From TrEMBL:
Name this protein carries in UniProt: Probable cytochrome P450 4s3
Family, per entry: Belongs to the cytochrome P450 family.
PROSITE patterns membership: CYTOCHROME_P450
Organism annotation: Musca domestica
Key words, A-Z: Heme, Iron, Membrane, Metal-binding, Monooxygenase, Oxidoreductase, Transmembrane, Transmembrane helix
Cofactor(s) needed: heme
Upper classification of the organism: Eukaryota, Metazoa, Ecdysozoa, Arthropoda, Hexapoda
SUPFAM superfamilies on file: Cytochrome P450
Membrane-spanning residues: 6-25
């Protein structure tokens, strides 16, 4: 090898080293970002980059949300298709394979979150409930633990809880809570835009109770309930009968499956006069004046919605923030086309005009 070749290689090596040193800070920052992204829910940076290279549609929205919407569509279609519902080979069909692929992604995310929380408890040396008694948060108050933490600690204490049972509980909170809430918010702001007098009264209450959404907000809660009466986030749900059930003159035999049509039940004129009218005042009446099972947006009885209180708090916080900052104005001749899928959606979207309140 002659001197000229050696000098050329040396110069190339120095150039590569110079480039490496120039971008060293950026490289280290990228590595830190990848490590950090593995601790939060959602697709990893690598998954997003891979999806972007393949031009997948799911890159236009969070991967988990896209997969959740796809599996909802598949299950809804299957429920109304005789062929798909009765086909023992459904899992080998194209929608069956897509369903299983979506489930793997959703379950992998749930398992990742559970693994992360379990490691956090192990690092904090928490193995039983007694270990949580004296722990304080960042502002010196007693630390509150998430529902998942309580399940994992109970499992450590010997409660008969399998990993699958824990995952099913986490699935309920992670995937059943976001789409239902966004549906309710969408229909609520539409109804508020159509009824300025209701919107004004709700706005005044939100201004008075700003920052105290955890407290009782009777009018806004009535607005939310009336929204869910007209457009229930879950339009139908099923129950399995464990013993013969008498309904009027009809006897439903043990072992039957029945469906409760929330959308229709909450339009019964016996309990809701002028059922198509948006009137939050219905829910400001005394409890004794309303049938306890006339409003079943969160189901009822011992198997009612486990996240009901959290959902109401989430809706109050979101809507009160929006009402304090924006005025919702109607779009002429627009009415949402409610579609009773697994979660009620508007087939033509939600159209409103928004005006800043300047707060």
């Amino acid at each position: 090898m002659d001197l000229l070749t050696i000098n050329s290689l040396s110069l190339m090596g120095l150039a590569v080293l110079g480039l490496f040193l120039r971008y060293l800070t950026t490289i280290l920052e990228f590595i830190r970002l990848i490590k950090w992204s593995s601790t939060v829910p959602g697709p990893s940076i690598g998954e997003l980059m891979e999806n972007a290279k393949k031009g997948r549609k799911c890159c236009q929205a969070p991967l988990l949300v896209y997969k959740f919407l796809r599996i909802c569509h598949i299950l809804h279609t299957k429920a109304f298709s005789f062929w798909q519902r009765t086909n023992p080979f459904f899992k080998y069909t194209e929608p069956g394979r897509e369903r299983d692929a979506c489930l793997r992604i959703l379950h992998d995310e749930t398992n990742r979150v559970i693994k992360l929380r379990r490691k956090m408890l192990e690092d904090a040396k928490i193995q039983k409930m007694a270990d949580t008694e004296n722990l304080l948060d960042n502002i010196g108050k007693k630390k509150r633990f998430a529902f998942l933490d309580m399940l994992l600690i109970s499992q450590m204490e010997g409660v008969d809880l399998t990993d699958r049972e824990i995952r099913e509980e986490v699935d309920t909170f992670m995937f059943e809570g976001h789409d239902t809430t966004s549906s309710a918010i969408g229909f609520a702001i539409y109804l508020l835009s159509q009824h300025p007098e209701v919107q004004q009264e709700a706005y005044e209450e939100c201004m008075i109770l700003e920052g105290n959404e955890k407290e009782n907000m009777p009018y806004l809660e009535a607005v939310i309930k009336e929204t869910l009466r007209l457009y229930p986030s879950v339009p139908t749900y099923a129950r399995y009968i464990t013993e013969d059930l008498q309904v009027g003159k009809l006897t439903l035999p043990k072992g039957s499956n029945i469906s409760i049509m929330t959308y229709l039940t909450q339009r019964d004129e016996r309990y809701f006069p002028e059922p198509e009218k948006f009137d939050p005042q219905r829910f400001l009446q005394k409890d004794k004046e309303q049938h306890p099972f006339s409003f079943v947006a969160f189901s009822a009885g011992p198997r009612n919605c486990i996240g009901q209180k959290f959902a109401m708090l989430e809706l109050k916080c979101s809507l009160s923030y929006l009402l304090r900052n924006f005025e919702f104005l109607p779009v002429k001749d627009f009415k949402p086309n409610a579609l009773p899928e697994l979660v009620t959606k508007s087939g033509n979207g939600i159209k409103i005009r928004i005006k800043s309140r300047g707060n």
